[in-house]
Design a protein that fits this description.
Largest sheet of chain A: 5 strands, mixed
Strand order of the largest sheet of chain B: 3-2-1-4-5-6-7-8
Shape of chain B: globular
Number of domains of chain B: 2
CATH class of chain A: Alpha Beta
Shape of chain A: globular
CATH topology of chain A: Ubiquitin-like (UB roll)
Number of domains of chain A: 1
CATH superfamily of chain A: Beta-grasp domain
Helix content of chain B: 25-40%
Largest interface: A-B, 38 and 58 residues
Oligomer: heterodimer
Low-confidence stretches of chain A: none
Low-confidence stretches of chain B: 272-278
Helix content of chain A: 10-25%
CATH superfamily of the largest domain in chain B: NAD(P)-binding Rossmann-like Domain
Distance between the termini of chain B: 57 Å
Mean pLDDT of chain B: 90
Number of helices of chain A: 3
Structural class of chain B: alpha/beta
Order of helices and strands of chain B: HHHEHEHEHEHEEHHEEHEHEHEEHEH
Number of helices of chain B: 14
Mean pLDDT of chain A: 87
Number of strands of chain A: 5
Strand content of chain B: 15-25%
Order of helices and strands of chain A: EEHHEEEH
Distance between the termini of chain A: 52 Å
CATH topology of the largest domain in chain B: Rossmann fold
Largest sheet of chain B: 8 strands, mixed
Radius of gyration of chain A: 16 Å
Chain lengths: 102, 383
């Protein structure tokens, strides 16, 4: 079994599950299985053509799948697949201020 | 100044003695720090620990750039500031704090927004840039300006419980665009409104970033160049990933397509005239939506013309720009008021005009109704 690690910003689409276990053979199959079980995460990982979005990185172990066989990268038993989105900062203070306005 | 010409005074030797007695660091490392010029982008959550530690460590010249003022909601994580600083420009408050901490260093404050127009000119005077911003347009601007000026970019980023650190553009290593070629369109990543950040997280990540800055300057140890460090504060997992040079990188790939700085707000899907925005408070359309959904009392004013309102509206009260001051009585002062137009420029002008009438509760909707339609409700007609 391989394990997908869901980043915290996307966990609201996986019912707060931080990891997802899969018996899938390849990265593509693993992601497909994930999106079948949690359909709402699909749009955040894949574009309209089913390709991994340019602001999402998928690593198997410590390696970017683009340096391996991309989506066809074969998952060894106990492989750890990390989904790592670009992040840029927190909630704007203006929003927080409005919410606290009395 | 050449390293041989750098001298440390008796006071400095005493002050930095805990560095100097480390064999790998020693006097040479300390002199390298004193000779170094580091530009810190942003004096927020990451900038706070970065600046404090770099100043304490004895980095000789620290540049700080930010256009914001200290606000009470900053104090949850921005440990540079105290309640005495509220309302002050952040760079002014930061400079005072740093100079109080270490009078032996030079602090250069830029109380302005980093833009494609000023970035190259500011960057060229520095040896290392430390990126502690909180938005994608500035991240890409910092990366590209570092590539174009040949300056290492020590990168850190935080979101909620997640942190990332890396070193880009160092010794022919990869840069941010090798990792993430393009920014997410607004609304597709968890929006700011759903965001937030654990206050201690920038303390952790900003300190790691300071550590990388010091390693780049002194040349000791092994930097995170070519590697991305990722931290999840919730389950305390730390992971390190390899970052490789992407042959399709638009700046440094095989066939570069970009040789100058670009409009990064546009690049990140934020169609807006940044220069029109000035210091006006603003929220994103995602935040606006969250605000409406929260049930919080809020008045929404549309300052477009009646014919535009007829084409499409989001149920706001229509007060066209040229009538706002005459109709100021209709605008509430006791609750937040979001002002919007088509793209965000006229509403900024309306807010400017109303400021003279004692309003301090007006917030501009970034990108206006166009952005709202694109990001929140694509069923509405665009015009």
């Amino acid at each position: 079994m391989a394990t997908l690690i869901i980043p915290t910003p996307l966990r609201k689409y996986t019912e707060d599950q931080a990891t997802f276990s899969t018996g899938a053979i390849t990265v593509n199959d693993a992601i497909q299985e994930l999106t079948e079980i949690y359909p709402n995460i699909a749009n955040h990982i894949l574009d309209g053509n089913g390709k991994v979005r340019s602001f999402i990185k998928i690593f198997v172990g410590e390696d970017d799948i683009r340096s391996l066989d991309g989506g066809e990268t074969v998952l060894e038993d106990n492989a750890v697949v990390s989904i790592v989105p670009a992040i840029a900062g927190g909630m704007s203070d203006m929003y927080q201020k409005i919410m606290l306005w009395r | 100044m050449a390293l041989e010409e750098i001298q440390l005074t008796k006071e400095e030797l005493a002050r930095y003695s805990r560095h100097i007695i480390i064999p790998e660091f020693n006097l040479e490392g300390q002199k390298k720090l004193k000779a170094a010029k580091v530009l810190v982008i942003g004096t927020g959550g990451l900038g706070s620990p970065l600046l404090l530690y770099l100043a304490a460590a004895g980095v000789g010249t620290l540049g700080i750039i930010d256009f914001d003022e200290v606000d009470d909601s900053n104090l949850q994580r921005q440990v540079l500031f105290t309640v005495d600083d509220l309302g002050k420009p952040k760079v002014t408050a930061a400079k005072e704090r740093i100079e109080a901490l270490n009078p032996y260093i030079r602090v250069i404050a830029y109380n302005e927004r980093l833009t494609s127009e000023n970035a190259l000119d500011i960057f060229k005077d520095y040896d290392v840039v430390a990126d502690g911003t909180d938005n994608f347009p500035t991240r890409y601007l910092v990366n590209d300006a570092c590539v174009m000026t040949g300056i290492p970019n020590v990168y850190a980023s935080i979101f909620r419980f997640d942190g990332q650190v890396s070193v880009f553009n160092y010794q022919n290593g990869p840069n941010y665009r090798d990792l993430y070629p393009e920014p997410p369109p607004p609304g597709l990543v968890p929006s700011c409104a759903e965001g937030g950040v654990l206050g201690v997280l920038p303390g952790i990540i900003g300190s790691l970033q300071a550590n990388e800055v010091i390693k780049v300057i002194t040349g000791i140890g092994e930097t995170l160049s070519g590697r991305l460090f990722a931290f999840d504060a919730l389950n305390f997992s730390t992971r390190i990933f390899k970052v490789f040079k992407d042959p399709d990188n638009p700046l440094t790939g095989k066939n570069p397509t970009q040789t100058t700085l670009i409009d990064y707000e546009f690049f990140c899907g934020i169609p807006q005239a940044a220069e029109e925005r000035g210091q006006i408070s603003e929220i994103s359309v995602q935040e606006f939506k969250a605000l409406l959904d929260s049930g919080k009392a809020v008045q929404v004013i549309d300052v477009r013309e009646p014919h535009e309102y007829e084409l499409v509206n989001i149920g706001a009260e229509l007060i066209p720009l040229n009538t706002v001051t005459a109709n100021a009585g209709k605008i509430r002062k006791d609750i937040p008021v979001v002002v919007h137009c088509k793209g965000g420029v006229r509403s900024a002008r309306a807010i400017d005009a109303l400021k003279t009438q004692g309003f301090d509760n007006l917030i501009n909707l970034k990108g206006g109704i166009v952005s709202y339609i694109r990001e929140i409700d694509p069923t509405l007609p665009l015009y």
